[in-house]
Specification:
The complex is a heterodimer of chains A (656) and B (271).
Chain A: H1 14-24, E1 29-35, E2 38-43, H2 44-61, E3 68-72, H3 77-88, E4 92-96, H4 102-112, E5 116-119, H5 122-131, E6 140-143, E7 157-159, H6 160-169, H7 171-184, E8 190-196, E9 204-209, H8 210-223, E10 231-233, H9 241-254, E11 257-260, H10 267-274, E12 278-280, H11 283-298, H12 302-324, H13 330-351, E13 358-361, H14 368-376, E14 381-387, E15 392-396, E16 409-410, E17 415-418, E18 423-427, E19 434-435, H15 439-445, E20 452-460, E21 467-472, E22 477-478, E23 484-485, H16 487-495, E24 500-506, E25 513-519, H17 521-530, H18 538-542, H19 545-563, E26 573-578, H20 598-604, H21 606-614, E27 618-626, E28 632-640, E29 642-643, H22 649-655
Parallel strand pairs in A: 1-11, 3-4, 3-5, 5-6, 6-7, 10-11, 12-13, 13-14, 25-26
Antiparallel strand pairs in A: 1-2, 8-9, 9-19, 14-15, 15-16, 17-18, 18-20, 20-21, 22-23, 24-25, 26-29, 27-28
Chain B: E1 7-8, E2 14-15, E3 18-29, E4 32-43, E5 47-51, H1 58-65, E6 73-78, E7 81-82, H2 88-93, E8 96-98, H3 111-117, H4 127-132, H5 136-154, H6 170-183, E9 188-192, H7 200-217, E10 220-224, H8 228-234, E11 237-242, E12 245-250, H9 252-256, H10 259-266
Parallel strand pairs in B: 5-10, 5-11, 8-9, 9-10
Antiparallel strand pairs in B: 1-2, 3-4, 3-6, 6-7, 11-12
Helix pairs in contact in B: 3-6
Classes of the chains: A alpha/beta (656), B alpha/beta (271).
């Protein structure tokens, strides 16, 4: 387990990598951000200067070694600088989700005892001022955007650029101290602490060492042959481990360029302008893009549409094989290259994926159709499986061995074993140090030999040695008759329909399964528009009988497919309803990474679950909702409950 | 009145001396009196609201300020000088910009181009120079584009920068109109019902932008608004009109407790 730092050339910390890059890639762009309509950029040499000035400023403000500094904002170079500046002075950066509610933020800042926070703007400053009296260790706040901040009391509040100015002014005074602190960093120093949103309980602070981050970055960069010439777009939350590895770990290891969008809304435009070569997105992003392409093709002229359909059909046939380097006939290749000129190339450019050399998706299962669509266009989209505790990488698909239903082979230096109950365990140089101030959880997750329980159930495919994930180990339950209950397996099948956004399946310990469904407002809304169905809200559309009919068809199709697997045929959906509200992180129904909190949902909508089981045909309910600004309201609705046809396994066995 | 001294508000803004004063304004359309003998002042750096029920003459008042209507009686004093009757474009040249109740943007042009039109006053290179795009014209365009980009950033409309205005929803169009008015770097900004037809969230956003504009750029703002809640929260002082007459003038608290105002809003029989 113990790796020496020789493999990484004595580069034992992110600040050390920065010093190397400032010389090796001095004039190459390190970070870019679109602001005032123009891409502003910082070379590696400039990045080093920016970080140094901020680090000196932090010393000037009294940051001690071992302090925790909360970083709260959207992806901007300033925050990436701040993380490395914090490391340079021996402090630990703690990126926090910038859309966290005040109490979530209070918990995290209180738990790590942060003395400093570097935040984006007035909104975040206000949020922290609100919770400040409960945070006994908290002292100073640094903000980037001065708008609206003029009237605030600036005793313990500082503008980012001023802190840098003060740092530059105090250069002579503190530079020796800074260099000393920087050189004290070792492979075992804490690199970053990330709070996992977790589907249950309070977030846990995952401590990652320089070894974890640098080894994982090195291994994964070599696995995909990443070079200094890559361009990435950083748009996923900074508090998520993936963004830290892509935008800091791998970026510093390889020396490639990190691009930050102008705002969350301009992400698609910025993606197109940058044309990243290395791209990560959760399945949801690919789904949304595909949905919008399909919707726009429906509205396109007849010639365009028929060309699109003709060539996409051909791409579906041979595109994936061409990408995997499998033999394809010359005629098919010619036709594909014509399609590439006419359709695929322009489409990829429109999507901003024209230059992608390595693309990844993870976090949730991706629909096979969606996955194949991007692959057939010639985009090298792959899947990986990872978690915060592993510093991302557990398994990943190598080039040319890509399948929709697996997550690939173990990443370099990662060992995997599968327990008797199906739970996956791993051990790797990326294995986290501990959960901060939580030895019980650390002990229950990581054993003495360094094996970490993932909490996911899965198995290795006999044919190709790839790992397949079924569900969360704790969510896999038993039905009343003892057969297996794997909710996610069924939910994912339904979620692959573009008009279904979210599904929650119930049935653990019961004799049959029932489901809640959220429709996708974009897809169903467009369908409603084309069919002249007027609606005023999500709730109204969700209750429309024709929408219910369509969803019922989907449910019944899925039931047929579920029934084909004898182990899981008990998970067919007997009854369902379409929820009157979208599940939302603000209401605590989902995590910030948009994973459903099953227990919360079951508890909150208990009356609906009961109604599904007691056979009533409709149910009235009142639900509390929380608005973005924290106010509460309630919505009431009467929901239709539908029966879905199921395939009787007994009958099937008899027929066979 | 115009020698009032500056003071600092509770929230730390400086309100300067009177910048504009309306003296005994009366406006008639034929036999109809739209405005009868109204006087009030606008001080530098304040948010001044004009409220009143439908048909009270609020928009007419704004049109008098912007020079669109010339009142039959009364005087308009601006920056210590009596203003002779002038055309709206001359008023604009003096640094008074406005938005409209029914949105008056160039629908086919992009948001960026629309906001750029607000900079016309700052551009003075000749037609020829503009056409061949050399020297002054180029330099000017770059400077003005920069100013416009700062406003786009301020009003958070980056995502629609290149979108034709005609394709935008109502709330965003209102914001673009505000951007264009702001691009003129006005010393007084007139807003004609900036929140009309908006939902609660859009109203909150717009209020935030108005306060920030006033705070960041020190822009004096005169606005007309229906939504009493919004007005009371935003304004430093409020003029209340009813049937073309001024029935109240003062801070939101004073106005709120003014019997004539309460009557006008709750409705009493007019004899």
């Amino acid at each position: 387990m113990v790796q020496s730092s020789q493999a990484t050339g004595g580069l034992v910390s992110i600040p050390a990598l920065l010093q190397r890059n400032a010389v090796l890639f001095a004039e190459k762009a390190a970070y870019r951000e679109k602001e005032f309509g123009i891409w502003q950029s910082w070379t590696w040499a400039e990045t080093e200067k920016e970080i140094e000035a901020l680090a000196l400023g932090l010393i000037n403000l009294g940051v001690n070694e071992g302090d925790f500094i909360a970083i709260i904002g959207r992806n901007r170079p300033y925050f990436y600088f701040a993380m490395v500046a914090a490391q340079s002075v021996g402090a630990v950066p703690v990126p926090v989700y910038n859309d966290s509610a005040a109490d979530e933020m209070e918990y995290i800042l209180g738990h790590c005892g942060a003395r400093f926070a570097i935040v984006e703007d007035q909104e975040q400053v206000d949020k922290i001022i609100e919770i400040q009296e409960h945070l006994h260790q908290f002292e100073h706040m640094i903000y980037i955007d001065p708008r609206g901040m003029r009237k605030y009391d600036h005793h313990a509040l500082h503008e980012y650029s001023h802190v840098q100015d003060q740092g530059r002014a105090a250069y002579d005074e503190y530079i020796t101290d800074l260099v000393e602190r920087r050189e004290k960093l070792t492979y075992d120093s804490i690199c970053v602490m990330l709070y996992t949103s977790g589907t249950t309980g309070r977030p846990k602070g995952v401590v990652l060492s320089n070894r974890n981050v640098i080894e994982s970055s090195k291994n994964s960069s070599e696995f995909d042959n990443l070079t200094a010439d890559e361009e990435i777009l950083s748009y996923l939350p900074m508090a998520w481990v993936g963004d830290f590895i892509f935008s800091v770990g791998q970026a510093y290891w390889c020396g490639f360029c990190v691009n930050c969008p102008e705002s969350a809304e301009t992400m698609i435009t910025d993606l197109r302008e940058i044309g990243p070569t290395y791209f990560f997105a959760p399945p949801r992003v690919f789904e949304t893009q595909l949905t919008s392409v399909m919707i726009r093709m429906e509205d396109a002229g007849r010639i365009k549409r028929s060309m699109f359909q003709k060539y996409m059909a051909h791409a579906k046939k041979v595109g994936g094989d061409i990408l995997d380097g499998k033999p394809v006939s010359a005629g098919d290749r010619l036709k594909y290259s014509i399609g590439n000129r006419l359709i695929f190339g322009p489409l990829k450019d429109t999507l901003g994926l024209g230059r992608v050399r390595v693309g990844y998706t993870a976090g949730e299962a991706i629909g096979p159709e969606i996955f194949e669509f991007y692959r057939s266009l010639g985009i090298n989209l792959k899947q990986l499986y990872g978690q915060t505790e592993a510093t991302v990488f557990i398994t990943a698909q190598p080039d040319g061995e890509v399948r929709a239903d697996t997550v690939g082979v173990p990443s370099p230096d990662v060992e995997i074993k599968i327990a008797d109950n199906g739970e996956i365990f791993y051990r790797s140089p990326g294995t986290f140090v501990e959960y901060y101030k939580n030895p019980e959880s650390t002990a229950s997750t990581k054993d003495a030999e360094g094996w970490v329980a993932t909490g996911d159930a899965g198995f290795f495919d006999d044919k190709n040695g790839h790992l397949r994930i079924i569900d969360r180990a704790k969510d896999v339950g038993k039905m009343a008759d003892g057969s297996m209950f794997a909710p996610k397996y069924v939910e994912n099948k339904l979620k692959f329909y573009p008009d279904i956004l979210e599904v929650v399946l119930f049935g653990d310990g019961k004799d049959r399964c029932v489901a809640f469904i959220n429709i996708d407002l974009t897809a169903v809304g467009n369908w409603a528009e084309r069919n002249n169905i007027a609606y005023a809200s999500y709730q109204e559309l969700a209750g429309h009988p024709r929408v219910l009919d369509t969803i019922q068809e989907h449910v019944e199709t899925v039931n047929k497919s579920v029934a084909e697997d004898p182990m899981l045929s008990g998970c067919q959906i007997h009854r369902f309803l379409i929820l009157h509200k979208e599940l939302d992180a603000d209401d605590g129904e989902m995590t910030r990474t948009r994973k459903v909190r099953r227990v919360v949902v079951a508890d909150k909508f208990n009356d609906l679950v009961e109604a599904l089981y007691d056979g009533s045909s409709e149910v009235s309910t009142v639900t509390e909702v929380t608005y973005e600004d924290g106010r509460k309201g309630s919505i009431s609705a009467t929901l239709d409950l539908r029966d879905a046809a199921v395939v009787s396994t007994a009958a099937k066995v008899a027929a066979e | 009145m115009s020698t009032q001294e500056s003071y600092v508000t509770e929230d730390g803004r400086t309100i300067g001396p009177t910048v504009m004063e309306m003296k005994n304004i009366t406006l008639r359309f034929g036999g109809v009196k739209a405005i009868t003998d109204i006087s009030f002042d606008i001080r530098e750096g304040e948010v001044r609201a004009i409220i009143g029920p439908n048909g009270a003459g609020k928009s007419s008042m704004l049109n008098v300020i912007s020079g669109f209507y010339v009142p039959q009686e009364g005087e308009v004093w601006y920056k210590g000088k009596k203003r002779p009757p002038m055309k709206p474009y001359q008023v604009a040249e003096q640094g008074i910009a406005r938005t409209f109740q029914n949105i008056a943007l160039f629908e086919g042009m992009t948001v960026l181009d629309n906001v750029m039109t607000g900079r016309i006053r700052q551009m003075n290179s000749g037609l020829l120079s503009q056409a061949i795009w050399r020297g002054k014209a180029e330099k000017e365009e770059i400077e003005n584009r920069e100013a416009v980009e700062k406003i786009i950033d301020f009003l958070e409309i980056q995502a629609i920068r290149k979108t034709p205005v005609g394709r935008l929803p109502y709330g965003l169009k209102k914001r673009v109109e505000l951007a264009r008015a702001l691009a003129a770097e006005p010393s007084i900004l007139l807003l004609d019902e900036p929140m009309a037809g908006m939902n609660v969230e859009e109203k909150e956003d717009m209020s935030r932008f108005i306060l920030d504009m006033n705070d960041e750029f020190g822009t004096t703002i005169a606005l007309i608004e229906h939504d009493m809640g919004v007005v009371m929260d935003l304004s430093d002082r409020v003029v209340v009109m009813d049937y073309g007459k001024k029935i109240g003038d003062g801070t939101p608290d004073e106005v709120r407790s003014n019997q004539a105002v309460i009557d006008a809003y709750l409705g009493v029989a007019h004899d």
